[in-house]
Specification:
Layout (H helix, E strand, L loop, with lengths): L2 E2 L2 E2 L18 H9 L3 H21 L7 H5 L5 E3 L14 E3 H9 L1 E2 L17 E2 L31 H21 L7 H19 L3 H7 L5 H19 L5
Antiparallel strand pairs: 1-2, 3-4, 5-6
Length: 244
């Protein structure tokens, strides 16, 4: 088992009932379940909270915090470039550590403890809006898949009516593909797969991944582990793009 402080992050993968809670998770909560198991996030959070508690010891906690002194302490800041493409407020080329950490991992509000079961449902974490997927540049080869659809617009004509027509076309085509099973990626249809990936991650944390595959062989073990690792390393954000 892995833990932050005295609180367990990973569940006992051998007990299926420990994953019953997954059946009621929203996509935002699913994203948290994968992120909280990411070792890099846990490591960064531990460093962050150690610094935060040291600052609180020196300058107090709200509502009695000496914020002026806090802001003048270099430990409270990181260079603005560490915020990446986030929307953190930049002050003199630097960003507050709590905002920078959230921006790196894709969320707003105070960075949650990985041992926190539901910061999303309790309103202590909200995901940052995801930028749209980049469109192919002019002249770039592009092959549409089952989850994509290309439309052509006439730029010499008013766009408003074309956009409305395009919206209707997209809605009808999405509904048609879902009825035919051509677009299976919805949160409701992926829950069982994700539940299996969480169990795999938890088995790995307990150094029992081989035991899981021995008890429940489900195809290529290496491929499954790559999928599980990808979900922790940024794939959790793609969950937020999926319909319920």
């Amino acid at each position: 088992m892995q833990a932050v402080g005295l609180r367990v992050i990973h569940r006992n993968w051998r007990r299926l009932e420990e994953y019953d809670f997954c059946d009621a998770l929203t996509r935002e909560q699913w994203a948290w379940e994968f992120l909280r198991r990411n070792r890099d996030y846990r490591r960064e959070w531990r460093r962050f909270i150690e610094t935060w508690r040291a600052l609180e010891a020196d300058y107090g906690r709200p509502p009695n915090r000496d914020f002026c002194a806090w802001k003048n302490d270099p430990r409270a800041w990181v260079p603005a470039e560490e915020c990446g493409e986030g929307d953190c407020r930049i002050d003199g080329g630097k960003v507050l550590i709590e905002c920078a950490l959230g921006a790196r991992w894709g969320f707003h509000k105070f960075p949650p403890d990985p041992a926190d079961d539901d910061p999303v449902g309790e309103g202590r974490l909200t995901w940052r809006p995801l930028p749209p997927e980049p469109l192919p540049e002019a002249g770039q080869a592009w092959r549409p898949g089952l989850e994509t659809m290309a439309l052509v617009f006439d730029l010499s004509l008013p766009l408003k009516s074309q956009l409305e027509q395009a919206r209707r076309q997209l809605q009808m085509e999405a509904a048609r593909r879902r009825r035919q099973g051509l677009v299976p990626k919805r949160v409701a249809t992926l829950k069982e797969e994700w539940k299996g990936l969480l169990r795999l991650i938890d088995a790995e944390a307990a150094d029992e991944r081989a035991d899981l595959f021995m008890l429940e062989p489900r195809g290529d073990a290496d491929s499954q582990w790559r999928r599980a690792r990808a979900m922790m390393n940024g794939g959790y954000l793609r969950i937020l793009r999926l319909p319920p």
